[in-house]
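Hi support team,

I'm filing this because I wasn't sure whether my run with iron/sulfur cluster finished correctly. The job status page said complete, but I'd like someone to confirm that the output block is well-formed before I use it downstream. Pasting the exact inputs I used:
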Amino acid sequence: MSAVGQFLDETKALACVHCGLCLSSCPTYLETGNENDSPRGRIYIMRAMQSGQLGVEAAAVRHIDLCLGCRACESACPSGVQYGTLLEETRDHIEKHHGRGLFQWFLRRLVIGQVFPFPWRMRLALLPVRAIRFLRFGFLLPKFAREMMELLPQRLARGKLPAKRLAKGVARGQVGFIEGCVMQVMFGDTNESSAELLNRDGWDVLTPKGQGCCGALHAHSGQLAKARDCARRNIAAFENEPLDAIIINAAGCGSTLVEYGELLKDDPAWAERAEAFSAKVKDLVSWLDGSRFPVSGSGAKVTYHDACHLAHAQGITIEPRELVKAKSGEEFVELAESDLCCGSAGSYNLTEPEMASRLQKRKVQNIIDSGAEVVVTTNPGCLLQIQSGLRKAGAHHIRAVHIADYLLEGDMVGN
Ligand code: SF4
Ligand code: SF4
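And here is everything the job wrote out:
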């Protein structure tokens, strides 16, 4: 099928000077060695689609589908190419002009589009999973369903935060907290840990009830109109509260929240409000005061995996390491290829399980080789992917934990 139309910001697309310096950072290029699976090759494909030289046809779509959206290419690019925006615009165009097979349609439109962004629907969908696990009937499921179940944590800790949690001692100010969809359904205890850390750091924590999905899953899967609706809802939920910052503890959500300004730039009623919202968004790790966390000397060797949407999309790599090192002291070890995608990439491990599995194995091998007993990260998708990979590899002696839970282990956080 052919479709011509101006879906790309041409200036952003032309910023690529084809130097190729991004190639060695691209996980899919490293795995396939195919230029069409590299950032430079994909930008060629996007521009050819825009000019009409290339239709929205299966072969071209395949190379765009295989992109993780990890944005490692942005970190490597000397020309400042905003690859993430180009990718979202291209995927939005593809979803409007390309017919998906039934299975991909079911995954993308129903599971990812209609279940994941709604915590209550996700809780409902997880009920049969709990029953199957309890009855040990998993072996009866088709391979795909078994793999999906394998990604889920052994223990689902759901939980809602109260509307307000008060600072311990004298309050330094007030922050808003984004609960996240996956976070509140599967990692409710991590949200608790995050709020506890903020309280101990001197912040009242407000969790406005009107908030909803950040829109990341929609934006990454070519549903920009839905992502914009999510953005408007969250801006309205937070903008009337007197807040010093809006805190997020999921890197994948954070990278979308800090880009609401870009997402709504063409909407005159919301553009300014979106910029104001995004300016307040901070990842938990860049907001906490690391100097308030004493060394615990727990003795466990610890390493750190950079979530792509924290390291590449938000450029945050130093602060989480400082926090982890403040607790682990001499026991911290760097991870080889720490900022190479683990294969989770939002919902990528569902839509592209083969490449996701290759990257999962590569990540897990690096973790095992580091000798660490704990791997800390900052994103629920990475946690699920790494935990599942460690189980598959039989590396039961290694734990993957969210940084908020890690900092509170042994209750050694400042006072
Ligand atoms: S976003 Fe990641 S997978 Fe996609 S082209 Fe860039 S580096 Fe490669
Ligand atoms: S995206 Fe950046 S690094 Fe990659 S080829 Fe283009 S200009 Fe070079």
